[in-house]
Amino acid sequence: MVFDSMETAPRSELREVQDERLQKTVQNAYENVAFYREVFDEHGLTPDDIESVEDLSKLPFTTKEDFRDHYPTGMFAREMDDVVRIHASSGTTGKPKIVGYTQDDLDVWSKAVARCLVASGLGSDDVVQNAYGYGLFTGGLGLHQGIEELGATVIPIGGGNTQRQVEMLADLGSDAISCTPSYALYLAEVADDMGYDIKDLPLRVVIFGAEPCTEPMREEIEERLGVKGIDIYGLSEIVGPGVSIECEEQNGLHIWEDYFYPEVVDPNTGDPVEEGEEGELVLTTLAKDALPVLRYRTGDLTTLNYDTCECGRTCVRMDNITGRADDLIIVRGVNFYPSEVESVVLEFDEVAPHYRIDIRREDNLDKLEITVELAEDFDGSRSDLKARIQKRLSNVLSFTPDTLDLVEYGNIARTEVGKVQRVYDHRGQ
């Protein structure tokens, strides 16, 4: 089942829609956003030079720094009289990125999220418990309006208050819940503590996003909750959740290409990579009025697959995000991503899916400390388990962490609201 015909349109038809919408987007950006007008002028370009998506490479990238340099509303193409809603990024590394929406923008966003929900196997008869935070974060209201667009029932419970979340799942028979992957696992823990067997509840789908989720973590979610785990993707600067999602085949996330045009580039050079090769995802909005964005560097690492999916959808599929270009950790000259540590942790049944990475500098030398939580029912040899995990980490990371600590179940802090923090870099402190 699909939400509308564009999901299965021939790629030739899709390209016509993309080119037409891109021309309007470029014209809007040039005429109404001083930043983009200056970019075009500096490169000797006019909107007429961008006739199709093939011409996008003529333009430089837009970056998160551009948003911060033009804080708060310098990237807007509409006056505030036409803007009906404001959202913002978390702003964890400086000023938040302010994003605005006209009513038409909200309508597009709602349709994109509704497509996502249908792709995940949900319909108008389902009850969806939305455990994303409401407010400036795009997750809560973004999912909420998409659920309503679909005609399903939304429970706007928001983040946190986990015991109440469990009670609502049980009492209202929710078919799906939307939350971060780390929160889904925490939900299962709390349900166990409350005496619920969460697998006995009607819950059948978890739509998770806002954090990278490795395949082992997805398997852990599906096993612990007895559900199908579906990865959704989005970012505030582009629209919020709803840029792409996995269908029930769980073989890549469909990008709604009539709304968002994707590229993948080498994160170091900015050059396009071959199809199927990993690189940094770059997105261009094709149907945004208040905030048109051209060639935005997301920082997220992925690959693209243009083959028609077994579900029948023709929209390109991106792989699950493996990490962020700016999340790369360098310790003593060796590069690795937190997701590589997570993949190792989840290989061992003797440990819980909770860990933290601490990086310190002692006597001008970097020290990597990894803390892993033991499973609740662990009763084996710690020294043997530690040796096996240490060996596996060394093989995956190509170097041996300085410290590996195994701590009792429950010792690593859980996150009920927002994104979980795994990495603590103390070197600049």
From TrEMBL:
- Provide the transmembrane region boundaries: none
The pathway where this protein functions is: Aromatic compound metabolism
Q: Name one Pfam family in it.
A: AMP-binding
Domain named AMP-dependent ligase C-terminal: residues? 333-427
**Keywords (A to Z) from UniProt:** Ligase, Nucleotide-binding
UniProt domain AMP-dependent synthetase/ligase: residue ranges: 74-283
Return one Gene Ontology term, BP aspect: phenylacetate catabolic process
Q: Could you give a GO molecular-function term held by this entry?
A: phenylacetate-CoA ligase activity
Keyword match Plastid: no
UniProt-listed Gene3D superfamilies? 3.30.300.30, N-terminal domain of ligase-like
List the SUPFAM superfamilies hit by this protein, alphabetically. Answer: Acetyl-CoA synthetase-like
Summarize the subunit comment: Monomer.
Official protein name in the record:
Phenylacetate-CoA ligase
Organism (species): Haloferax larsenii
